[in-house]
Write a structure and sequence with these properties.
Blueprint lengths: L9 H18 L11 H11 L1 H7 L5 H7 L9 H30 L1 H20 L4 H13 L3 H12 L6 H4 L2 H20 L2 H4 L9 H4 L3 H21 L13 H14 L1 H6 L30 H5 L17 H6 L6 H4 L2 H29 L23 H30 L1 H18 L8 H33 L6 H33 L4 H19 L6 H14 L18
Helix pairs in contact: 1-25, 2-10, 2-13, 3-10, 3-13, 4-5, 5-6, 5-7, 5-8, 5-23, 6-7, 6-8, 6-13, 8-23, 10-13, 10-20, 19-22, 19-23, 19-24, 20-21, 20-22, 21-22, 21-24, 23-24
Length: about 575
C-alpha cells in the first residue's frame, strides 16, 4: 500500500509534462512549424564580413613583388620565404588571441567583438599600405591578427541564427560565399591597383604619395570597404547571444531612425515586425518575441507547447533538471564536458584542412610568379624538375579572380545539393580522402607545353576550389552540431579559430621554406608534396570523426515526440505546479 503513495520519479514527471504539452498542441490541431530562415540577418552579417576577405586576399597578387621591392635579399629564390612570413604574420597573431575573443564574445556578446575585429582590420590595412620595409609590413599584419578574432565569432553567430538542421546546408554557405566574393574582388583590386604609377601613368605621378608607397592604393580600397562594413554592422546587425540579445541596442535604434528618414515613418511602422527586436523602442515591444528561443532552463510549459494563449493555463517556471543552475554554470563547465572527443576531432581536422589549403593559396601565386631558373637544372622525372611561369601581377590577379567566381557558383549550387544528398559527415570524409591527390599532381603542370599551361592552371584552380567549397562548410556544420549548448559556442569556435589560425600561419612559412629548398635543389614540387603528406594525415583524422546526437538533434527529437503523442487534452490546474498527478 505504501507504494501507492510514493512520489513519481523525475522521469515519470517529465514524461507526463510532455504528454500534457503534446495534448495541448493536438487539442488545437497544430503542428509545430519550422522557424523562418534568418535571411535578413545573414545578409547583414555577410555585408559586414565581405570587407575582411577583400583585405586578406588583395595582397596575394603583389606580395612577392612587394617583398622584392623591400630589397631584403638579392636572391630571388629567398623571396617566397619572406612573402610567406608576411602572409603568416596575421594568422600567427590571430592564433594568439582567437580563443580570447571567443570567450569575450560569450561574455559581452557577438556584435561588439565583430565590430572591434573589423576596426582592427581597417587600422591594419592602412598601416600595411604605408609600410616602407619588411618589418613594418610584418607589424601591420600582426596588428590586424591581434585585433581580429572574427572567424570563430562569425561561426558562432551563424550557429545561433540557425536553430534547425533543415536550414544548415543553405545557411552555412553564406560565409563561404562571402569569402568567394572577396576572393574575386580582392585579387582584382590587389593586382590592378598595386603600383598605380606603372599601371596608370597618366593618373598617378612618380613624385606623389602613390609613387612613394606603390602598394597603398589597394589597401585604401580595403580600408573603405572595412569602414562601410562597420557602419552596416553598427546600425543593422542584431545581437545573437542568448542572454544579451534582448538588451537595448542604441546602434539598432539609430539605424531605424535613419531608415525612417529615408523611407518615411509610415513605411517603417508598416514593417516594424520585420525589423530586429532591438530596433523597436523598449516600451513598445514584448519581453519575448515569438521567434526568440528561450533558454532551456527558463522555458515554461506554455512556451514549449506553442499553444495559443487561451489554451494555456497558469504554470510556474519549469527548471528542467536544475535548468536555472545549469544555465548559470554553463560557462564554468569542465573542459572535458565542453570539448568532447567529437568536438576535438572536428577541430583537429579543421586545423589540418586550414594548413594545407592555406599552403596552396600562398604557393600558387608564388608558383606563378617564379621565373624559370637562370641556370637550367637537368630534370630526372618523375620527381626532379625545376621550372616556373614568370607571370605578372595582373595575370595572376585575374586567375585568382576566376578562382573566386567559380568558388562562388560551387558554394551556392554544389554544396547544398551534395550536403542534402549524403550529409555533412560523409561529404567531409570523402573530401579528406581525395585532397592528397590535388597536391600530388599540381607541380607537374609546369612541365606542360606553353599552349596548355594556362588551361592547366585553371583546371587546378577549379579542382582546388571544388574541394574547398565542399569541405569547409561541412566541417563548420559538424562543429556546430557537436556543441552541447549555444552558451559554449563562442569558446568552441574560438578554440577552432585559434587552431586554424596557427595552422594557417604555419602553412605559408613551411611551404615557402620547402619551395625555396626545392627550387635550389631542382625539386620544385617538394612543397606541394609536403602539403600532400599533411593532407594524408587529415584524411586519417577525418575518417575518425563521428557526429553524436547534440542540441539540434534533441530539439528535433522533442518535436517528433510531440507529434507522435496521443491526442489527449489536458488542462493543468493551479495545483499541478506543486503536486504530481497520481
Amino acid at each position: 500500500m505504501a507504494s501507492h503513495h510514493q512520489s513519481p520519479t523525475k522521469h515519470t514527471m517529465r514524461t507526463r509534462r510532455r504528454n500534457s504539452m503534446a495534448g495541448s498542441e493536438r487539442s488545437v490541431g497544430s503542428k509545430k512549424p519550422l522557424p523562418p530562415y534568418p535571411s535578413r540577418q545573414l545578409t547583414i552579417l555577410a555585408l559586414c564580413r565581405i570587407c575582411e576577405p577583400i583585405a586578406f586576399m588583395s595582397i596575394f597578387p603583389y606580395i612577392w613583388h612587394m617583398v622584392r621591392d623591400f630589397k631584403i635579399t638579392e636572391d630571388e629564390s629567398q623571396i617566397s620565404f619572406y612573402a610567406g612570413m608576411v602572409t603568416s604574420a596575421f594568422t600567427f597573431a590571430e592564433f594568439s588571441t582567437s580563443f580570447i575573443w571567443g570567450r569575450l564574445s560569450d561574455k559581452i556578446g557577438r556584435k561588439p567583438v565583430l565590430l572591434m575585429g573589423m576596426t582592427g582590420t581597417g587600422i591594419s590595412v592602412i598601416m600595411f599600405g604605408f609600410a616602407p620595409n619588411l618589418w613594418v609590413a610584418l607589424g601591420a599584419r600582426a596588428l590586424g591578427g591581434f585585433l581580429n578574432g572574427n572567424i570563430g565569432v562569425l561561426q558562432t553567430t551563424v550557429a545561433e541564427l540557425v536553430t534547425v538542421k533543415a536550414h544548415q546546408p543553405k545557411a552555412y554557405t553564406v560565409m563561404p560565399l562571402v569569402w568567394c566574393i572577396g576572393s574575386i574582388v580582392g585579387p582584382m583590386i590587389g593586382g590592378w591597383l598595386a603600383k598605380p604609377v606603372e599601371g596608370f601613368p597618366g593618373c598617378f605621378s612618380r613624385d606623389g604619395i602613390f609613387g612613394t608607397f606603390p602598394y597603398l592604393l589597394p589597401n585604401l580600397f580595403s580600408a573603405i570597404c572595412v569602414f562601410i562594413g562597420v557602419i552596416v554592422g553598427l546600425l543593422f546587425l542584431e545581437e545573437t547571444h542568448a542572454e544579451r540579445k534582448h538588451r537595448r541596442d542604441p546602434g539598432i535604434e539609430l539605424g531605424r531612425s535613419l531608415m525612417s528618414r529615408i523611407w518615411g515613418s509610415e513605411k517603417v511602422e508598416e514593417n516594424k515586425g520585420k525589423l530586429p527586436a532591438k530596433a523597436v523602442p523598449e516600451e513598445e515591444r514584448p519581453l519575448l518575441s515569438e521567434n526568440d528561443e528561450l533558454l532551456p532552463g527558463y522555458r515554461t510549459g506554455s512556451a514549449r507547447s506553442s499553444s495559443p494563449p487561451d489554451t494555456v493555463s497558469e504554470e510556474s517556471l519549469d527548471l528542467e533538471e536544475g535548468g536555472g543552475l545549469e544555465l548559470a554554470e554553463a560557462e564554468r563547465a569542465p573542459a572535458g564536458k565542453v570539448f568532447s572527443r567529437a568536438v576535438i576531432m572536428v577541430i583537429i581536422s579543421y586545423g589540418i584542412l586550414a594548413f594545407h589549403t592555406m599552403a596552396f593559396d600562398s604557393l600558387l601565386p608564388v608558383f606563378l610568379s617564379t621565373s624559370p631558373p637562370a641556370t637550367e637544372i637537368p630534370a630526372k622525372l618523375p620527381f626532379k624538375f625545376a621550372d616556373g611561369f614568370g607571370w605578372d601581377t595582373q595575370t595572376i590577379g585575374f586567375i585568382l579572380s576566376v578562382q573566386g567566381v567559380y568558388s562562388l557558383a560551387s558554394t551556392r549550387l554544389l554544396f547544398p545539393f551534395v550536403a542534402n544528398k549524403i550529409g555533412a559527415l560523409r561529404l567531409f570524409k570523402i573530401m579528406s580522402v581525395l585532397y592528397p591527390l590535388l597536391y600530388l599532381f599540381t607541380p607537374y603542370i609546369v612541365l606542360l607545353p606553353d599552349s596548355l599551361r594556362k588551361l592547366s592552371v585553371y583546371g587546378i584552380v577549379v579542382w582546388k576550389m571544388t574541394f574547398s567549397t565542399l569541405a569547409y562548410p561541412s566541417n563548420a556544420i559538424l562543429l556546430a552540431n557537436s556543441a552541447p549548448t549555444t552558451l559554449t559556442l563562442g569558446s568552441i569556435n574560438g578554440a577552432a579559430a585559434m587552431t586554424a589560425s596557427l595552422c594557417r600561419a604555419l602553412g605559408p612559412i613551411i611551404s615557402g621554406f620547402f619551395y625555396t629548398q626545392g627550387m635550389e635543389s631542382g625539386y620544385s614540387g617538394l612543397s606541394w608534396w609536403v602539403a600532400g603528406l599533411v593532407a594524408v594525415m587529415g584524411a586519417w583524422v577525418g575518417l575518425q570523426i563521428t557526429e553524436p546526437k547534440g542540441r539540434m538533434d534533441e530539439k528535433e527529437d522533442m518535436d517528433e515526440t510531440t507529434e507522435d503523442e496521443p491526442r489527449t487534452t489536458t488542462t493543468p490546474n493551479k495545483d499541478d505546479r506543486t503536486r504530481p498527478s497520481p
